Amino acid sequence: MSSPRGIFITFEGIDGSGKSTQARRLAEALREAGHEVVLTREPGGSEGAEQIRALVLEGDPDRWSPETEILLFTAARRDHLEKRILPALDAGRIVISDRFADSTRMYQGLSRGNLQAQVDGLHAMMIGVEPDVTFLIDMDPGTGLARAKGRQGTEERFEDFGEGLQRQMRDGFLTLAAAHPERFIVIDGARPMDAVATDVLAAALDRLPAPAEISAPAG
Ligand code: ADP
Ligand code: TYD
């Protein structure tokens, strides 16, 4: 795989922690600062991956075995990577994704038995890309769940797992962040949106080169 020139930023955290809100706000702020930004999400982000999103998030929760679910999320990610993420990084853009592989490590790796080895094996074989920066929007699961339940929609698949699972996910994300301090930035999400957005932007600007440096041709 060629070495991309752009910057890959992801947002992770439990359902309702404010990832989508913060991803959107960071994209807006970086665009205002003159950066070229692609804002995307998982599962989804490309045409094929959005079709897989509907398969995994709607309908009977027992429709897929845990192993099949890993394959579906990884298939969606592979399409997203090929069609959207890597072309944008190759063009020198900043890509901001609302969730990425860390979500599979948590949700598929931990929620229905321990399938971490299968998740990691498939990631190494089919994805092989890690973000430059990952914002973990951390918060108490009770608050996150109340926020997530406040939204209307048919995509309730993992929110329905309840507070026990979300607590396990939160602990798992914090453990993952501690294991990868080179890319994780943990942000306290249980504060007003503006305060969270200010911290996220400051941390992002700290890590980013000036706009011209990102898209300048190599060599
Ligand atoms: P996620 O993508 O992590 O599920 P969202 O950004 O969709 O979270 O936010 C979930 C809900 O909580 C939305 O209704 C959003 O407007 C609200 N919300 C997001 N951030 C905050 C915050 N800091 N304080 C209060 N409500 C928030
Ligand atoms: P998302 O739309 O980000 O939900 P939310 O806004 O509630 O956080 O993601 C939908 C659900 O998909 C969410 O419950 C987490 C789950 N998910 C996985 O289980 N594995 C994955 O690899 C990804 C990307 C998401």
What series of H and E elements makes up the topology? EHEHHEHHEHHEHH
Q: What can be said about the biggest beta sheet?
A: 5 strands, parallel
Q: Supply the number of structural domains.
A: 1
- The best one-word shape is globular
So, the CATH homologous superfamily? P-loop containing nucleotide triphosphate hydrolases
Summarize model confidence as the mean pLDDT.
91
Q: Show unreliable segments.
A: none
What is the CA-CA span between the terminal residues?
18 Å
Considering DSSP H and I runs of 4 or more, what fraction of the residues is helical? 40-55%
Structural class assignment? alpha/beta
The proportion of strand residues reads 5-15%
Report the CATH architecture. 3-Layer(aba) Sandwich
Please report the number of helical segments: 9
Query: How many strand segments?
Result: 5
CATH-defined topology: Rossmann fold
